[in-house]
């Protein structure tokens, strides 16, 4: 299967100019390295909506970011995730966890672990006789950290805890789904916002456990509002419907230092090592 890059939005809200900029960059990275470019709709969460997914795909098409294959929907691949969890379970790498979020935040944790990292409470204890909630399934990790190499950030070492594989409500967790889906589609290049860089060591570690080929990462700077916070609907005209296709592409090109405003034109100017390394502060007109 030819290698590929991808853009994988979650259809919880319309794409804003920051999401569109990341999609453009994902397309540029893929095409500049002669990879296929794929779109995946990450619709496992109950806070995602089919009508939003349709609008997101329409917006991407409008700016020229088009998948080389029909877009995939994560909700169509429950069996794929179940099979991987079963494999890990057969290897003794899965256990049930009955902890609430409050339990985890209140538990003692290692000095190097970030807030919210799982402290291993349920790892080696017997499950409760009368649990008050369905269990989540966690990976029995054999390391505390893992190092990935990012094209823009260099080597990055992050915490690997016993992260969730399947939530207590039965929904496959993000960290497992993206790893399995990328491998199934031949995706070996992941370009996304740098807020997701801390997730990469967990995902790369899981991929290695499963024997998947390593992925090339490029985590690009976010787009922020004038207060230095992540861009959101409340910040004014931020969606393609509000900005317009041509103005949006002009803004994206300007933010990257490009003179040309079409994808093919940007591709002629694209150099990943020359990309801005600081967030783009977006000021709605």
Question: What does this molecule look like?
Answer:
- It contains 9 helices and 12 strands.
- Helix 6 (200-209) links the parallel strand 9 and strand 10.
- It is α/β, with parallel strands linked by helices and 285 residues long.
- It has 2 domains: 4-76 and 221-281, 3-Layer(aba) Sandwich (Rossmann fold); 79-166, Glutamyl-tRNA Synthetase, Domain 3 (Glutamyl-tRNA Synthetase, domain 3).
- The mean pLDDT is 94.
- The strands form 4 sheets. The protein has a 5-stranded parallel sheet, sandwiched between helices.
Helical percentage? 25-40%
- Average per-residue pLDDT, rounded, comes to 94
The number of domains is: 2
Distance between the termini: 44 Å
| CATH top level assignment of the largest domain | Alpha Beta
Content of β-strand: 15-25%
